[in-house]
Amino acid sequence: MSSEPSQNGDSPAQKPLHELLSSTLVDIYVGEENSHYPLHEKLLCHHSPYFTSIFHNSANKASRTKEYGLPELDDTVFALFVGWLYSRAIRSPEEEKDIGPLLDLYFLAAKLDIAALETEICELVRAFYHAHEIYPGLRRVQYVYANTEADNVMREMMVGSVARYLTLSDSIPEHWAKALKKNGQLSVDIIRSIQQWHLEARQVPDARDASVDRGRNGFKGAVGFSVEEGMKDVKEESEEDEGEGEEEESQVNGNGDA
Fold first, then answer.
1. What is the band of 17 on the pLDDT scale with cuts at 50, 70, 90?
2. For 132-219, where are the E strands, in sequence order?
3. Which pTM was predicted?
4. 105 Rama sector, left if φ>0, alpha if ψ -120 to 50, beta otherwise
5. Nearest CA to 167 among 248, 221, 234, 223?
6. Phi, then psi, of 76 in degrees rounded to 5
7. Which of 10, 8, 50, 6 is nearest to 26 (CA)?
8. Alpha carbons 236 and 136: distance in angstroms, whole number
9. Other residues' Cβ atoms within 10 Å of the Cβ of residue 164
10. Cβ of 221: how many Cβ atoms within 10 Å?
11. DSSP letter, residue 10
12. pLDDT by residue (tens digit) across 196-252?
């Protein structure tokens, strides 16, 4: 069983499922136990340039190879991918614990060069946090950093959410403070995210200004300072036990620069 080729490509145009269910099947073996997945070759290659590079050569001719192994993958995650492949549907997360499997599926989609699936998962995760009025916890952010590179859409969404959470909080939770001191890249990314808000100067306190409102024209009046009145207490899921901070800090290294 071969492994590891990859080609980047744009998302393919949508086609009806019946047009992609060719008679030719390929055998995919997943995990340490080599779980066997016989999949329709045309369907698989239509969605994944990664598999196209395996089962077709540069002239787009069929390869003799009709099996492929992914021993490093978790069988459960690949089963989620197969479900999406044939249904083009993903179940929306109902609880925060449902985010973990979705992130693993997101990382797999990136490996297989399936941009449409990456986008769909990111939007599901974004919608969940927004609908439940919570923010990604430190462990979630660390996990994303450990498995993505810069300019990744999931990473940017997570960082943007954390930037808002920390900006609107009265203080920085201890576990976040420790993580930010240790992970310089995360700190830089949070600042960059805030810069993308393009705040007007009058909305930002000026420590050089000796006036009571520090230059924030209209603060507590009407115009100028952007504050959410009546904002609910900021909640952050999966961070109830701040004593786990040390464990959380150690989860990111390598790819995440954390």
1. low
2. none
3. 0.75
4. alpha
5. 234
6. -65, -40
7. 50
8. 7
9. 16
10. 10
11. P
12. 999 998 888 888 888 766 655 544 443 443 334 333 444 555 444 444 444 444 444
